[in-house]
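ingest -> validate -> predict -> emit
validate: passed (alphabet ok, no gaps, 330 aa)
predict: started
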Amino acid sequence: MMDFNALKQSLNTLIGHEGGQLLDCMVQAVKSSTRMIMKQKQCMLLRKIKQNGIGTNDVECILKKLPLSENALGKLRLKIMNPKIKDAYQVKQTKSIENFRVWRRSRRLIPGHLLQGYMHIWRMYTDEFKQIVDRRHDQKLKHLIERWKKILIVPDMVRGVSLEPDMSSLPPEFSSELRLYGGVKLDEDEKIVLECPVKFGLYKKLNTTQCKIDVEEALNKLRWSKIISEKNKSRNMQTEEQEGNPDTNNTDRSEFISDDKVVDINQLRATDLPYNPTVKMPWSIGQQELDIHMFKRDVQELAEKMKNNTKKWSNLDDARQRGLKNLEVE
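emit:
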């Protein structure tokens, strides 16, 4: 990395004909300093890599082969990187002690009238070496970040729905300023959170277990709807055949039959009996169960991915969070 021939020429010019032993001593002192600087910079590089949430190439290649979630991989990455940083720090300490010993031995051999000139050459070459190492490490850190860092890109449109607010249809006199009536008084934090756009979504901590529960509830409602819809269709067809009066729009769901004064239990859904802990779950609805299962799997995988890739649970700043909390309490 450094041209030590140029260093020897500079030292030869400085010492003249003092002897080869002095020249070798000076060169060894500079080389010892460069080794110490290299270990210091390596320790700093490993810390920067860890701070950016990634690992070295060997660490990431090992983690890539493991069938773990991103959250588990992040914890494992920290466990692997911490010993690497600790070992690098110990090597740096060893090189610092060795450099101190070399410098003390060299200091006894360097004459006093050559010390100032030698220190000038030593600083010049060590500063140059630091710049070279910093430049190489910055390039390596940038390469590692581009290779291993996962960046969440927010799309401009999701399933044809634009995420940007459409302000073109609003009249010129429209104002988003908060209007208060009835003598209501709000502080600045509460006003800020109420002035958010109409379609502003509040992102809270994602619970994958609750997500699975919500998906199962929604799919059970879908099954009950399909089952009861098929029953209604068959019942309407039988009624039309018996009475000879077709009515294709008669698809209302009614548990109580007023003519016979009875309650048709078959018409009940799971949501109609929230007080009953032993509600019978719906049975299979045939070929559509495959589509339902694939949909449930995709939703759960998406929820798990979003949970692992999202580090900031709330999209509100501190002021809006305080305002929202005050409004919920009131």
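The radius of gyration is 37 Å.
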